Amino acid sequence: MPVPTLHAFFDPDTFTVTHVVSDPATRRAAIIDSVLDFDAKSGRTSHTSADKVIDFVKQAGLTVDWLLETHAHADHLSAAPYLKEKLGGKISIGRHICEVQGVFKKIFNAEDMNTEGADFDHLFEDGESFKIGHIDVRVMHTPGHTPACLTYVIGQDAFVGDTLFMPDYGTARCDFPGGDAATLFRSIQKVLALAPDTRLHMCHDYPPDGRAPMWVSTVAEQREKNIHVHDGVTESEFVTLRNARDKTLSMPTLILPAVQVNVRAGQLPPPEDNGVRYLKIPLNAL
Fold first, then answer.
1. 242 in helix, strand or coil?
2. Per-residue pLDDT tens over the stretch 225-238
3. Which end of the chain is more exposed for a tag (fewer CB within 10 A), N or C?
4. CA distance 229 to 106
5. What count of Cα atoms within 13 Å lies in the side-chain half-sphere of residue 71?
6. Which of 161, 134, 144 is nearest to 215 (CA)?
């Protein structure tokens, strides 16, 4: 199988990693988990992070076929529509995004919000395969953090979204709507059943103890060292640990703006009759 070329961009404001995966033979590419810069204090959006990705893609002579989301993120806004405008590509996510849209349409009382995934160009099924150039990609449905989480398996590499973090940080929280710790544990076991030398690429890193950001681990390293799910941890032990930890966590700073944008495939809510777009802050709803 052809070996993909990988390039990562770390956004320190949201601790997010955007991955560019390309086929060196055809120079076709996918961008995974992009970032739209958002200033919560002013309500301004900007494209500094996305423009870095665009510059790289153009300098490398790549053609973007896919704009992949691992899930509807709660900690950053997606830049997928902006990247599609500048570079092309299909904005894609897991089919279970429809469940997530249904939940948040009610929370935000968003009459415009489609709950059939129509804002996305493609909805992946569990086990579906597609190509980046000549490179095969397999889709794994790995819910638990959210109902729609996916892992993209590309040869010896897997892009796990928020399902796993670096071993010293552990695993994703499960207290968002539709999250479930037992489901996450089973999804993680699917990931950890991949070959031991499979490289796992994270969507985020929250470095503890002042270490530099890192976002690549292996199945073997996770099974040996992950503080939440190393070998020997049972499902019941994990559920107890995960639920107790989630009760101590505050909501992500950008969860309310991020979710109502990301379930729309990164599109901002439609403008109102004065031409201005608004993000809602539902009070006492989460």
1. helix
2. 999 999 999 999 99
3. N
4. 34
5. 29
6. 161
Q: Do the beta carbons of residue 191 and residue 159 sit within 8 Å?
A: no
Q: Taking a C-beta distance cutoff of 8 angstroms, is the pair 138, 127 a contact?
A: yes
What's the burial of 223, exposed, middle or buried (CB within 10 Å: 0-12/13-18/19+)?
Answer: middle
Tokens coding 266: 């990164």
Q: Which residues contact 106 (CB under 8 A, 6 or more apart)?
A: none
Going by the DSSP 8-state scheme, the letter that residue 102 receives in this structure is: H
Extract the tokens encoding 96.
């279970």
* Strand pairing class (28-32; 63-68): parallel
Half-sphere CA count of 118, side-chain side, radius 13 A: 6
pLDDT digits (tens, 9 = 90+) for 4-39: 999 999 999 999 999 999 999 999 999 999 999 999
Which backbone phi and psi does 185 adopt, to 5 degrees?
Answer: -60, -45
How many other C-beta atoms are found inside a 10 Å radius of the C-beta of residue 93? 29
Separation CA 195–CA 176 (nearest Å): 30
Question: Which pTM value belongs to this model?
Answer: 0.96
Indicate the fold that domain 5-254 takes in CATH. Answer: Metallo-beta-lactamase; Chain A (3.60.15)
